[in-house]
Amino acid sequence: MAKPRVVLPGDIVDTHTHSGSDDESTMDVDAESRVLRLGPGLAQINDSVRATAAGICHSKDETQFWVTSNKRRYVAAEGEPVIGVVVARHAEGYRVDIGSAHDALLPLLAFEGATKRNRPDLALGTTVYARVSVANSLMDPEIECYNANTGKAEGYGELSEGYAIKCSLGLARRLFSSNAPVLVALGASVPMEIAVGLNGRVWINTETPATTVLVANAIKNSEFLDAKQCRQMVKELLEKK
Amino acid sequence: MQTFERIHPVEFQRRFLTQDTRLSGREFSQFRPLHIVKGSIGTAQGSATVRMGNTIMVCGIKAEVCEPDVKRPTHGYLTTNVELSPMCSARFRPGPPSDEAQVASEHIHRLITPSVDLTSLCIEENKVVWALSADIVCIKYDGNVLDAAIVALVAALENLKLPEVKVDPATGVVEAGAEDGVQLGIVRRLFPATFALVDDNYLVADADDAEEQMTSASLLVVLDDQGQMVNVWKRGTGIISRDTITECVAAAAARKSEIERALST
Amino acid sequence: MARPDRRDPDQIRALNSVLGQLSRADGSAQFSTGSTSVVCGVYGPVDVKLFDEHLDRAHVEVKLRPDIGIPGPKDKWLESAILQTLEGNILAHLHPRTLVQINVQVRADGGSLDACAINAAILALVDAGVPLRLMVAAAACAVMPDGRIVVDPVAEEAEAARSLHTFAFAEKGLGEGEGPVYVDSRGVFGIEEYDACYGVCERAVGRVLAFMRSAVESKVTKESHVAGA
Q1: Which residues form the Exosome complex exonuclease Rrp40 N-terminal domain (chain A) (predicted)?
Q2: Is residue A74 in some structural domain?
Q3: Do C and B touch, counting CB pairs below 8 Å (3 needed)?
Q4: What ipTM goes with this model?
Q5: Is the pTM of this model over 0.90?
Q6: Would you say B134 and B81 are in contact if contact means Cβ atoms under 8 Å apart?
């Protein structure tokens, strides 16, 4: 079961444990007491767990199952960092385009040190880095630019200067993991600031526009390259510069 | 009971279906009786009114003379137009025809075109032909308009009388002669029967409006005079098994004789 | 009697597909059977017009553009056929108050267009990651005047045919008990001919589904090959 496999919509995912003996009675008890957690791309349809999207099915501890798939349209999920653009200002907060079906709400008080008197002032068109705080299918998503527990910004907030590019959600997720080969390769030779939103947006800031473009191109090119190819591609881009 | 029906229309219908009955008192496989009045519109060249329970469709056919298509110089034209206006049900909005009406028009057009002899509409080759436009208007909507529309169109075509015309060879002017002239050459008549899968479980014949609201799949079977199938059209994701479709074809044959009887009166 | 393109009666034309070729769409697919080719781009879930908004599910919309000219009644009819085949297969309740827009562009119609358009649309939905219940595919066949049944007819055969049949089946629906998702049979035919066509199309759909599966699998593998590294 541990081995990830490719699933298509409608494929039944076998969630039964196969470890242990063939004794059916113990297995039944086991199955009843086990609580399954189904992640994205899976749904219970009638009596079986089926994939609803094409992707790779992963499992952990035989209780957690999820499908990773590459998409281009973001669907907000709680806790994920996103990059958005302020599109409107209301009395209570901002409307921010984060690429999902509905614009997200960013309350005026969801910033570090913000009070009713001391409000942040963001112009329309500002790029912000924020964390999704409320996400469910029935409500518009809400985002915040601070950690609600500590009250500190922790890197969230307005992204001034720099340049934001769009990429697939799969690529954004890979860049977000600390050892993305393309970022490691770039980081070794180019000083840069980078923010990755899991909504498929990447914000880049470097010393010169030319370097920013180089980094942007390198990231876009890395979509289908493995670690070795990434290093080679970055090397070639740097040589051309 | 009316309150229950209004607040929980689905649950209300379900109470009947689980008892193997329908609100209308019909059996699952029972169609509504058909009443056809031919020639109901005096000003049209052919017309018919069809009543199927509370669904009423009127078909009027207007004939005009025009030039034939260069590619088919001996063929006349037959256009169909189904109208589902706010007059027949609150479900429809005023304005351009809804998708449902357009799809019904197109589907009926595809069925009727091979069913009439378009060459019988030729007045003079390459010069003048008849262009028939059949307007099928829903007066009262209570489900299954497609069946009613097809029957209304067939009845109106049977009723159609084209006046004798003469073309003056010198001037090219077309002159109408005596009224009540020739009839249209009809290749085959169409006998439709629609079945609906209601609440994913119950296959009912000739669903009414309330039943249609709960329909997850519908099946149209159209037979010709010989009882051969000319169309099977299943839409929607509800599961209608292969065997059930075969049973529906048999039920459509029984419906055919009902329609035949109604057409001949 | 040989077929115009010398195929066996039960042989479908060469299938071809390209996934994700449109860079601005959320998901896209080009699907071709022989000379018939359709491109489909899917957007979704996106913001919906207030008029079309449903509080409990996504609104699904199909827009079809013909290869030549402006959309007419025929195209509206096919739009509705695609919608009716796919709408119930989309798990629309997972994304309430949104819109899933399916844009279909016909590139070339060399026969069996309806089936090709349905296949392109389902692949584009898979590519976009729109949650689906099952894989669905369609196939067409024709009964020729001499009674032969030919699968995946070209335009010339469709023109001469006594009856034309388009069937769509869900992947897990191949087997007993379950039925077709979509049927459009027209012409003049008896129940035996209908039954035979049902079987022919069911087998053809099986082949189309196997093709789709390998196309999607290879794309997923290509993307995850990097992820695993």
Answers
A1: 36-73
A2: no
A3: yes
A4: 0.92
A5: yes
A6: yes
